[in-house]
Amino acid sequence: MKLSADFEEFRSYLQELKLSANTIASYMGSVRLYGSLYTSVTTASAKKYRAFLIKNYKPATVNQRICGFNHFLDYAGKPQYKLPSVRLQKPSYLDAVISNKDYLSLKRRLRKNGPELWFYVVWFLGATGARVSELLKFKVEHLSSGYMDLYTKGGKVRRIYIPDTLCSEASAWCHRRGTPSGYLFINRRGEPMTARGVNYQLKHFARLYKINPDTVYPHSFRHRFAINFLQRFNDLALLADLLGHDNVETTRIYLTRSTSEQQKMIDKIVTW
After folding, report:
1. Using one digit for the tens of pLDDT, what is the confidence trace for 86-124?
2. Whose CA is closest to 93, among 265, 245, 262, 243?
3. Alpha carbon of 144 to those of 57, 156, 179, 180: distances in Å?
4. Which residues are known catalytic residues?
5. What is the DSSP letter of 80?
6. Which CATH superfamily is domain 8-81 in?
7. Are strands 147-151 and 157-161 parallel, antiparallel or unpaired?
8. What are the φ/ψ torsions at residue 149 (nearest 5 degrees)?
9. How many CA atoms does the CB half-sphere of 89 hold within 13 Å?
């Protein structure tokens, strides 16, 4: 198959597909690159083009170039020459979860330097597995019972437990700040905090204490709770119940390991 030097008809074809201007430019660039290397399309030259891309570009770019080239082949009515994309190894889901070391460090720094409110925000998130929307529903009254019951739309009740030590220290904190009842986490105006406000402040403290901000967000502490729980008490069904998961398969993600943990295991295990 001869490769035409005029690609404007191909551009019109892409426009008819209602692709974005950036995508069209990318696909056109892929075909022009091919045209700068080869004068026609054959099985051999197509394979060489794929090898060239793999050697010179990152996997995501390789797939983008291949996609553009394959669109050209569809346009030309020569799908038999289409190339397979390269497989991208997805980073572990748990790579963006705060490490236990950083979690403990953040707690320690906030306890020492304050504000005390944020020390308890982090501790509650990490020790209860609560979602940020659930965190903001905790009240002083829950410290006496040691748990908070939440009613779901289906009429079910999910109980979020508060560890004894956290209940005791949080009660003393409430007494010091003169809060005998009501919501635990309120802003300077005396109103309940917002999820957005919590996320913003956590990012602030991450940067302040030189912790990767990509791992510091409200849900990250829920993940940390789950990982720590399984490391100390390997009961997946119980964890699913504590997290409010309807399906234990949702909880199974916490049995996987981050890429850094995988690397450490390989370094330790593979000695042959």
Report:
1. 886 555 556 788 999 999 999 999 999 978 999 999 999
2. 262
3. 60, 23, 14, 11
4. 131, 153, 219, 222, 245, 254
5. G
6. Tyrosine recombinase, N-terminal domain (1.10.150.130)
7. antiparallel
8. -95, 130
9. 3
